[in-house]
Amino acid sequence: MGKIARLFVIKTRFEACAVIYALAVGAIERGLHYLETYPGFSGWLLFSVCPMAVFMAGARLMELTRKDTGERRRKADLPAFGTAQSGTRAEAVR
């Protein structure tokens, strides 16, 4: 069972892009069915929601497959000025 489960683990960004592409194709197909079933504004509204779900899932997949360099990328990730946290990279450098 473990060997089969390993086939479904996304490890690289290429695999993540392939999964995102497959999700996007399916989302557009579903959106086109919504346009046929619900003509007008409601169909377009449902059509536009389908790719948005792929954008959110794709962003998460790309974030999870990013190489971890140990560098913080956002200002919000940094501790507040004047506060010391044990085990942070800044303490290791000192």
Task: Describe the structure concisely.
This protein has about 90 residues and is mainly α.
Description:
The protein has 94 residues and is an all-alpha fold. The protein is 63% helix and 0% strand. It has 4 helices and no strands. It has helices at 2-6, 13-37, 41-64, 89-93. The model has no long low-confidence stretch (mean pLDDT 80).
Which structural class matches the secondary elements?
A: mainly alpha
Secondary-structure element sequence? HHHH
Distance between the termini: 47 Å
Poorly predicted ranges (pLDDT <50, ≥5 residues)? none
Number of strands: 0
Shape: flat
Alpha plus pi helix count: 4
Rg for CA atoms: 21 Å
* Portion in helices: 55-70%
Mean pLDDT: 80
The largest pleated sheet is described as: none
The fraction of residues in strands falls at under 5%
Secondary structure topology:
Layout: H1 2-6, H2 13-37, H3 41-64, H4 89-93
Name some characteristics of this structure:
mainly alpha, single chain, 4 helices, 94 residues
